[in-house]
């Protein structure tokens, strides 16, 4: 099917696919920013001991958002781990230490992104080499066929 397309048609298709990809990326980025921004403003996370000192007072983050251990999740020893399986520890100005449930862990998402990117690169390179090898094999067979036809005097 693709062999019947002209160079002009292939070029047009490639350009359209590129434009479509860029439009989807822009739209997805815009929607992700819009949705995550509105959800974060309206979303309240459960806290340990129902303390909300971090809402009314300045606070410092003692421990950034990180995953809860399997033991904490299964035993439900820390209530905030039940909701999102992530927790962060805050210290309010009054001295109270609060454990709060949180959305995402940045370094885990970054690691997942880089893992996906590296695997995509590896698969792309393997596919590229497979195509190059297959092209060489087919060119070699065509050359042999042409040599055989010329040596037999068929042309």
From TrEMBL:
Q: According to its UniProt record, which protein family does this protein belong to?
A: Belongs to the JTB family.
Entry keywords, A to Z: Cell cycle, Cell division, Cytoplasm, Cytoskeleton, Membrane, Mitochondrion, Mitosis, Signal, Transmembrane, Transmembrane helix
- Biological process terms in GO annotation: mitotic cytokinesis
State where it is primarily located.
Answer: cytoplasm
Gene name?
jg15642
* Entry's Gene Ontology cellular component terms: centrosome; membrane; midbody; mitochondrion; spindle
The name on file for this protein is Protein JTB
Domain of life (superkingdom): Eukaryota
**Transmembrane residue ranges:** 9-27, 113-133
Q: Which PANTHER family match?
A: JTB PROTEIN-RELATED, PROTEIN JTB
- What is the membrane topology noted in the UniProt record heading this document? Single-pass type I membrane protein
Give compartment(s).
Answer: Cytoplasm, Cytoskeleton, Microtubule organizing center, Centrosome; Cytoplasm, Cytoskeleton, Spindle; Membrane; Mitochondrion
Q: Which Gene3D superfamilies match?
A: 3.30.720.220
Q: What's the source species for this entry? A: Pararge aegeria aegeria
């Amino acid at each position: 099917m693709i062999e019947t397309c002209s160079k002009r048609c292939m070029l047009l298709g490639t350009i359209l696919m590129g434009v479509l990809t860029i439009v989807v990326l822009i739209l997805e980025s815009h929607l992700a920013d819009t949705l995550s921004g509105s959800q974060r403003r309206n979303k309240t996370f459960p806290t340990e001991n129902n303390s909300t000192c971090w809402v009314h007072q300045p606070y410092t983050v003692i421990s950034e958002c990180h995953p809860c251990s399997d033991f904490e999740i299964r035993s439900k020893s820390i209530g905030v781990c039940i909701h999102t399986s992530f927790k962060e520890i805050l210290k309010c100005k009054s001295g109270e230490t609060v454990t709060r449930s949180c959305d995402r862990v940045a370094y885990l998402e970054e690691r997942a992104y880089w893992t996906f990117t590296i695997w995509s690169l590896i698969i792309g390179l393997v596919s590229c080499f497979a195509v190059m090898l297959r092209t060489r094999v087919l060119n070699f067979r065509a050359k042999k066929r042409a040599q055989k036809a010329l040596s037999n005097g068929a042309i």
